[in-house]
Structure formats: structure tokens, C-alpha cells
Automatic annotation (TrEMBL):
It holds the Pfam family GAF. This is Dual 3\',5\'-cyclic-AMP and-GMP phosphodiesterase 11 (cAMP and cGMP phosphodiesterase 11). The lineage of its organism: Eukaryota, Sar, Stramenopiles, Ochrophyta, PX clade. Signal peptide: none annotated. The keyword Transmembrane helix applies. Residues 65-77 have a biased composition (Low complexity). Residues 53-77 are annotated as: Disordered. Residues 215-367 form the GAF domain. Keywords: Membrane, Transmembrane, Transmembrane helix.
Length: 387
């Protein structure tokens, strides 16, 4: 006699392919379970048996799948819930910081060096702003970062830094992300500061001085080429005032034939000659005969190998200060006009001086690039010529 359990086991062993047209079930008198009995018992179709088996199988599958899923979720939750230790976070911080130190050093060093080179060459030649040169240097630095980034990373790897022992789930935690980001940012800051050390060995004001020198050369050339022609003078000169050194200086002048003489820088004491008198009084001087003027100083003629017979000296004033009193920052001298200088000449040279003062408005008063023209010839050290 087969019990219901025997039937179900047979169905399971045969993959659910046991076929019965009709099975008659009867309840045993004893509590042993179901058994095959007489036809008078309650009839149950095979469809009901198979349905019961499928439900049992599906129940076992769902129960097993649910258990497996719950087990995996429990393992994942346990792994995600495991926070990194302080030692692991420190290791991750250093592992992220060290390569970025190298990147920061390379970035700032290349940018500063390339920017300074561009500023001192193309910047001076074409009058580029310092920020433009710095932007060009940044472009060079970025290109170097792309080309040599792998080299920096390889050097950092060869240093043998310990790698953080973290799982992928741990690396995704907020604490690990914060440690990695802060380490990289700190490394870049330290590297950029170290890269700026190159500024200690550079002349950071050289390019600016070169640009000012070019501006002053332009001013010299304009005045000396055309200045003396506006009044019909044979020669002219432009003296700048250096109050800090107590000197008047000039680089070039035109000779008796109207040709420009460049020579060395010439300096004289600020109180010497007709130029010194103009600086002191802040007024122009029209000297018809220099041999009869007690303020005339022959030292400049001796140095330039020229002769001055008459002179018109006009002060170049700076912009007025708060008290309304401007300072004399330069003196324009027109010399050797055959018929002498008149009032019209004074007005013309006065207009020229005003334009020169406006041009020099951006130049520091009293300095005007005096030390950018090389070694000076201090005439005060020469024997004072007799008037």
C-alpha cells in the first residue's frame, strides 16, 4: 500500500512525469495516513496530485531563494557597515597626497619659469602684459602635465608607499572619499608652495624694468629726433631728475650737427648748471648767451664733445599733488638756435614738456628707469670746468 508521501517522492524522482489516470484515496482507520483503498473511497484526480507537488516544489524553491538572498544581503550589509580604521584612513591620505606633491611642484615650476621667459622676451618685444605671459606659461605647464603625468605617478609608485587595504565598498564610504580628496588637495598645495621656491632665484622685476626702458627709449628717440626741429635748434637733450640720488641724468643728446649721440649715461648733481636752476625754481630759462650766465656748466659739453652758445630749458612737471604743487621730473633743453629763442619757442617747448609729463605719468617720480641704462659717467667726479 502506497502512502501519499510515497507518491510525492516518486513524482519528485521522475521529474514530475509520473502519470496516473485516476487514483483512489481512502483514509485509514488508523492515523497512519492516506493509502490506496477500495473504489468506494473519495476519488482524487492526478491533476490535484501534480498541483500539490508543484506547490510544494515552488514553496521549497522560494524558501531556498529567499534564504540565499537574505544571506547575501546580510553579508553585504556586514561588509558595508565595516568602517575603515584610522590607520587605513592615514594610509589612504598619504597615498593620495604624495603623487599630487609632485604634480604641484612640476606645475608651478614650469608655469613660473615659462611665464618669466615669455615675459622677458616676447613680453618686452611686443609689450605684452605680465598676466598674458603668465597665462602662456600656464598653457606650457598644462601641456607638461599631460605629457609627463605618467612619469610623476611612476616615480611616486617607486617610492614604495604602502597601499591602503580597503575593499571597494569601503572606498565608497564618505570617510574614505574625504580622506582621499583632502590628501590630494593637501599634496597640491604643498607641491605648489615648493614649486614657488624658484622665485627666490629669479629677478621678478627685470621684465617690468625692460618694458619701462623701452618706453623711455621711445621717449628719448621722439624728442631727440624731432624735438629740436620744432623750434629750429641745432641740438637738444632730456635730463631726468633723481631726487633719491640727488642727481640729474641723461642718456643721449644731439650734437651740433643734429646727430644723436648715445654714449654712456651722464649724471650731474641736481643743483648744477642751468638744468639745476630750472629744477630749483620750477620755471623755464631762456639763456641768450651761455658764456655770460653764471649757472652754465661746461661739464656736459666736455663729456659730449659739443659747444653750447644759447639755450632754452623748460621743466617737465609731474601731475599735481594734493597741495596743487607738481614736481619737476625732467628738463628739456634746446640749444644753439642761430637767431636765439623767442616767446613762440617757449610756448612750443612748453607744450612738448606737457606731453612728455603726461607720457611719464605712469613712471615713478624721481626714478624714471635711471639704473636701467648701465654704468653712469658722474660728471661731479670730473674736474669742474672754468666758466
Amino acid at each position: 500500500m502506497w502512502t501519499g508521501c510515497d507518491i510525492l517522492q516518486a513524482i519528485a524522482r521522475n521529474g514530475g512525469l509520473v502519470h496516473f489516470s485516476k487514483i483512489r484515496w481512502q483514509r485509514s482507520a488508523s492515523a497512519a495516513g492516506l493509502a490506496f483503498g477500495a473504489p468506494s473511497c473519495r476519488t482524487v484526480s492526478a491533476r490535484r496530485v501534480f498541483s500539490t507537488a508543484k506547490r510544494a516544489k515552488r514553496g521549497r524553491g522560494e524558501s531556498g531563494g529567499t534564504t540565499s538572498s537574505r544571506s547575501s544581503a546580510a553579508v553585504g550589509a556586514a561588509a558595508a557597515a565595516t568602517p575603515p580604521t584610522q590607520a587605513q584612513l592615514r594610509t589612504l591620505f598619504m597615498h593620495s597626497a604624495v603623487p599630487m606633491v609632485g604634480f604641484g611642484i612640476m606645475d608651478n615650476f614650469v608655469m613660473i619659469s615659462a611665464g618669466d621667459l615669455i615675459d622677458n622676451t616676447l613680453g618686452v618685444k611686443f609689450g605684452l602684459a605680465t598676466l598674458t605671459a603668465a597665462a602662456c606659461g600656464q598653457v606650457v605647464s598644462d601641456v607638461c602635465g599631460v605629457c609627463f603625468g605618467g612619469t610623476v605617478e611612476a616615480i611616486a609608485t617607486r617610492m614604495g608607499l604602502p597601499a591602503p587595504d580597503l575593499t571597494l565598498r569601503q572606498r565608497g564610504l564618505r570617510a574614505c572619499k574625504l580622506a582621499a580628496t583632502s590628501g590630494a588637495a593637501s599634496g597640491v598645495v604643498v607641491g605648489c608652495i615648493l614649486g614657488m621656491a624658484t622665485l627666490l632665484f629669479m629677478d621678478t622685476t627685470h621684465a617690468e624694468r625692460e618694458k619701462k626702458q623701452r618706453e623711455m627709449d621711445t621717449l628719448f628717440a621722439t624728442i631727440l629726433d624731432d624735438g629740436h626741429n620744432i623750434v629750429g635748434a641745432a641740438k637738444c637733450s632730456l635730463f631726468f631728475v633723481d631726487e633719491e640720488e640727488g642727481e640729474l641724468w641723461t642718456k643721449v643728446a644731439t650734437d651740433n650737427d643734429g646727430e644723436i649721440k648715445t654714449g654712456k649715461l651722464i649724471t650731474i648733481p641736481i643743483t648744477t648748471g642751468i638744468v639745476g636752476e630750472v629744477v630749483r625754481t620750477k620755471r623755464l630759462l631762456n639763456v641768450a648767451d651761455t658764456s655770460k650766465n653764471t649757472n652754465y656748466y661746461k661739464g656736459v659739453d666736455l663729456a659730449m664733445k659739443t659747444t653750447t652758445r644759447n639755450m632754452l630749458a623748460v621743466p617737465v612737471m609731474s601731475r599735481s599733488d594734493e597741495k596743487g604743487d607738481g614736481k619737476v621730473i625732467a628738463v628739456i633743453e634746446m640749444m644753439n638756435k642761430p637767431e636765439g629763442f623767442d616767446e613762440n619757442d617757449e610756448k612750443l617747448v612748453g607744450m612738448l614738456a606737457a606731453h612728455v609729463g603726461a607720457f611719464m605719468g605712469q613712471v615713478s617720480e624721481g626714478r624714471a628707469g635711471r639704473h636701467e641704462y648701465g654704468e653712469a659717467v658722474p660728471l661731479r667726479r670730473l674736474p669742474t670746468p672754468k666758466n
